[in-house]
Amino acid sequence: MKRLTATLALWVGLATGVQAADPITLGLNYPRSGSYKEEGLSQMRGALLALDEINARGGVLGRPLRLSTLDSASQVDKAVGNVDQLAAEGAAMLFGGASSAVAIAAGKRAREHGLIYFGTLGYSNDTTGKDGHRYLFRESNNATMSARALGQYLAQHLPNKRYFYVTSDYTWGLTSEASLRTATGSEDQARHPSVRLPFPGARLSQYRDALTLAGKSDAQVLALVLFGEDLVRAMRIAHETGLTSRMQVVVPNITGHMVEQAGPSIMEGVLGTTPWTWRVPDMEDSERGRAFVKAYVERYQVYPTSSAAHAYGIVHQWSDAVERARSLKSEAVIKALEGHRYRLLKGEQEWRAFDHQNVQRTYVVKVKPRAEVLKDPLHQDFFEVVHHLDGEQGAPSLSEWQAERRAAGQPDKLL
């Protein structure tokens, strides 16, 4: 009997060891095709680098991490279907996306599966505002944070100007335009008109028609509330028609991929915002940030963009929360994340408890002249930082958030 008990104990121990060594699956629901595919590629690269680092030091709770990826193509229906598939694979956490509409819809479906969803790149206020819930977190800044930072700079350097808006007609574009209008005092749509373009799938003729109207206006500032390849298409037309030489172009959110695709000659002087560039670790004296840039360049031979930094940070932050909670259960991880302050690739950041918005510094950047860009060994030193706004100053307050939720018929707390 003693021998049998010992044998059973040995078998249970071995079985437990095998189970502990089973990999933990993380699901990346990202755009591998469509207008935002370059931002998606960076997310995958950043996530893989984070996984390798975590696995090299023993994984999470003694288990290695593995990544399962599916293409969302920035399409809501496809992204929601991906959530179901990744949940069926046993994913412990889901993240990804470069469209706020995808983050919102996929996050809601993830909640039905009891899974946390991290919106990786999506700036709509709605994501952590009226559409926010307990299972949805956002690492990037929101539209209000971008607009307040950009608005401060524009108020100082381009006061009392007329604006013309060209906007992607979905949640990111609409909340970004509204936030920028508020921040710049350009709410009067008769004085500061706008044209909305369908997303996804705007035709080239629609870009041309919108920019023709902008050219016929008396606006001095052209606000292109477009992202990814949509912005690239619009910038090429604006450059061809001479708009970039007579109007200041501003974009709410910008990444290095957009500059690289359009070309720095076309993008020169464009103003935008970003929460991170590969220069930020030196500016904020972040050793981890410098190590990330070095490792990323060595592996991929390009500088990491904000898209890569977001994905990298999410994987590390989720893993850290799991270790602190000593559990993979979503509710335990949510509690470990809420109110957590940390430093990773820049200065202090916080997962705010009441809305799950990541609060951090936002930078206003201007695209450098092509000659300056080419001085860099990788020809990718695109941005001059011209202004910044700290997270607490830029993020909506609790009372503002609650007012937005009430207006939309949503409860005052995340459910």
From TrEMBL:
The organism's taxonomic lineage, starting at the top: Bacteria, Pseudomonadati, Pseudomonadota, Gammaproteobacteria, Pseudomonadales
InterPro entries documented for this protein: BCAA_transport (IPR051010), Leu-bd (IPR028081), Peripla_BP_I (IPR028082)
Organism per entry: Pseudomonas flexibilis
UniProt keyword list: Signal
Range of residues in the leader sequence: 1-20
Region (Disordered) residue spans: 395-415
Record-annotated Leucine-binding protein domain positions: 23-368
SUPFAM superfamilies: Periplasmic binding protein-like I (SSF53822)
Protein name: Branched-chain amino acid ABC transporter substrate-binding protein
Matching Pfam families: Peripla_BP_6 (PF13458)
Entry's family note: Belongs to the leucine-binding protein family.
